[in-house]
Design goal:
Strand content: under 5%
Structural class: mainly alpha
Number of helices: 6
Largest sheet: none
Number of strands: 0
Radius of gyration: 20 Å
Oligomer: single chain
Shape: elongated
Distance between the termini: 27 Å
Order of helices and strands: HHHHHH
Length: about 120
Amino acid sequence: MFSPPNSIEHKLDSPQMPCADYTFHFASWKRCNDPDTYAVLNWFIMAGLHHFYLGKTQRGVINLCVMLVGLVFLPFLPIVGVIILVGIVIVELPQLFKSQQIVHAYNNNVMRELIHKVKSDNA
């Protein structure tokens, strides 16, 4: 019975691992992201959830904190709160329209890293 490897570092000479191509395709299938999921998360523009999806945790946390600051200001200083929230939308809106390109570039980088990893493991 053939079973998939647990990691890229799985030995190529193992009976479970037929070839380096399988290692690459299995790993890329697990690590590549779906552009549609990114676009759906991007609809929550101010929360920055799409940044977490691509592993940009720091940017996601910053986006989330700025949004919370804007929401806190809304009841007390509405103009400041609205300016902060509109600023987030202005910065993040282009990413909504470029979601396919952003995820495509991310997936290309992931695959490029995996190719180098598989080649170095195979050498």
